[in-house]
Design goal:
Length: 273
């Protein structure tokens, strides 16, 4: 008997769990390997602990920025660091709105209070600066500057979109999330489909998390290596070992993968092989 997930929050949790359990996903935590300070258990704990915020989003209560802050707060009680901040940026509006059009309507209604709450959430993570915005999260006057400029959360994402592909999803209507979900629908069910989707997205455009950590040339080289995997010229396990050895973590693609799984689940995709 198949279980039918009627709750958006349940589908979001399942998406988070399926992403971290799928393997091998080159460079990322999965069943095959942990990081020194962050393990698969930390990711699974965050999947469970985020439920109140996801329920809040499903009920359409409160502001999106505040719900993102709640999700970060609820998942900051372990020592594994920031496991799902980028994923929450994508999942919360999708759960709130139900689908991409609904998410975009919710995003369009964000205001200064959402931006302030988002900055407060950002301050709880290990990442301390926004990629391109002139308002530094380390600046004690940051919140005051947001209010003075009357910047909505959409404005903040627009400023970050050039160098952050997760923020870019907000600005451009979730195109990579949509593509990822479509890939799942055409690639079959289960873990293998998730891995195939992950590699395909990794081969689409440079991962901005890699750019921030290692620079654009490394991100572009990783993209080229992913294309070799898709072409059958590089074994996936070899690519995975290479990324782990070099500390290359496609974290932004992982966040978009979670959002894509959520969307596909909402559209009837089967996660069971």
């Amino acid at each position: 008997m198949k279980c039918h997930l009627t709750s958006r929050a349940e589908r979001a949790q399942l998406a988070m769990m399926l992403e971290v359990c799928a393997y091998p996903k080159p460079g990322n935590v999965d069943r095959c390997h942990d990081y020194p300070d962050t393990t698969i258990e930390h990711f699974l704990a965050s999947t469970i602990l985020s439920r109140p915020a996801l329920d809040e989003a499903e009920r359409g209560e409160g502001r999106i920025g505040e719900i993102i802050r709640h999700a970060v707060q609820q998942t900051s009680c372990h020592s594994g660091g920031n496991t799902h901040f980028g994923a929450f940026i994508l999942l919360i509006p999708l759960v709130y709105g139900g689908d991409i059009p609904g998410a975009m309507k919710a995003i369009a209604k964000t205001d200064v209070s959402d931006a302030v709450a988002f900055y407060r959430a950002f301050a709880l993570t290990a990442v301390r600066t926004l990629p391109t915005d002139s308002i530094d999260i380390n600046d004690p006057k940051a919140l005051e500057m947001l209010r003075e400029r009357e910047m909505t959360l959409s404005d903040v994402m627009l400023h970050s979109a050039k160098n952050d592909m997760v923020a870019r999803e907000w600005v451009t209507g979730f195109p990579l999330t949509r593509r990822g979900a479509d890939l799942l629908h055409t690639s079959g069910s289960g873990r293998a489909a998730i891995v195939q989707m992950f590699i395909t997205l990794l081969a689409t455009e440079p991962d901005t998390f890699i750019i921030k950590k290692h620079g654009r040339p490394v991100a572009e080289q990783t993209l080229a290596r992913a294309r070799l995997v898709l072409d059958g010229r590089l074994p996936l396990r070899e690519f995975d070992d290479e990324c782990i050895r070099k500390g290359i973590n496609p974290g932004s693609i992982a966040d978009i993968t979670i959002a894509a799984i959520y969307l596909a689940l909402s559209e009837g995709w089967s996660w069971e092989s």
